Amino acid sequence: MSGMPAQAEPQLQTVAARICAAVKAQIVDGRLPPGSRITEQQLAAEFNTSRTPVREALRQLVADGFALFKPNSGTVVRQWSAQQMREIFDLRVLVESEIASHAAQRIDADGIAELLRLQDQIEAQGASTSEANTARIGRLNREFHRQVALASQNERLVTMLASAIEMPIVQQTFNRYSPRQLARSFAHHRELIDAFVAHDGAWAKSVMSCHIHSAKQTLLGGAHDASP
Fold first, then answer.
1. Residue 58, Cα to own-chain centre: how many angstroms?
2. Which residues are CB-neighbours of 211 under 8 A, at least 6 positions away?
3. Residue 164, domain member (yes or no)
4. Alpha carbon of 17 to those of 27, 28, 149, 206: distances in Å?
């Protein structure tokens, strides 16, 4: 019987996932700007692997919205139009505000303590807009919002949110922030935690809506309308 050994396929999937995660990080950090070509040869050499897991990683990047496959060009980092950005943030307002409302009613003391710990870390270096600090804040911010989602205990809403917050345009938002806008974002998180302490769903929903709307305006303020 010919074919790949049974254990080979999971191993290839693991390598593909590692490559995919690394390329996503490069896109979010700006090392691979919109429109950049991503070739099988380039990734196979970079990760010292065959082209089979590379092809799988490229398929996943396209599926997750980080890249596009274009005839005669191959796989390129996706560009987003202002309208597409607006639609993604409008979806986040609807879904994440509802998640915050559920979380306020269900979060326990441990969950609140974890959010406080994360927010302390987010603010640890102040409102500096250096590349290193905004990248650090971005990672911690994603974890903060993930913890809020988990506290909601609403699997369907969490699944809907996951795809929206993983979009590269969402992850790059902090690159656009001024110190004043960063401070405002910090204040939103602190007020959201206050709403959770009070177990006030309406308050939490309102704060989250304001938080996402302000992020949308920050991003769109510097956005150029580009074809997808």
1. 18
2. 185, 188, 189, 192
3. yes
4. 15, 16, 23, 37
Domain of 175, CATH number, reads 1.20.120.530
**94 with 148, same domain?**
yes
Distance between CA atoms of 149 and 26, rounded to whole angstroms?
26
Domain count, the chain: 2
Going by the DSSP 8-state scheme, the letter that residue 200 receives in this structure is -
The reply to whether 137 and 72 lie within a common domain is no
Indicate the residue among 39, 55, 77 that finishes a domain.
77
Would you write out the chain's pLDDT as a tens digit for each of its 228 residues? Answer: 445 444 445 576 789 999 999 998 888 777 888 889 999 999 999 999 999 999 999 999 998 888 999 888 899 998 878 888 888 889 889 999 999 999 999 999 999 999 999 999 999 999 999 988 988 898 899 899 989 999 999 988 888 777 666 566 665 677 788 999 999 999 999 999 999 999 999 999 999 999 999 999 988 875 444 433
Q: Is residue 227 in a domain? A: no
Domain ends where: 77, 100, 115? 77
Residue 191 identity: E
Torsional class of 65: left (φ above 0), alpha (ψ -120 to 50), beta (otherwise): left
* pLDDT, position 6: 46
Residue ranges making up the domain that contains 38 = 8-77
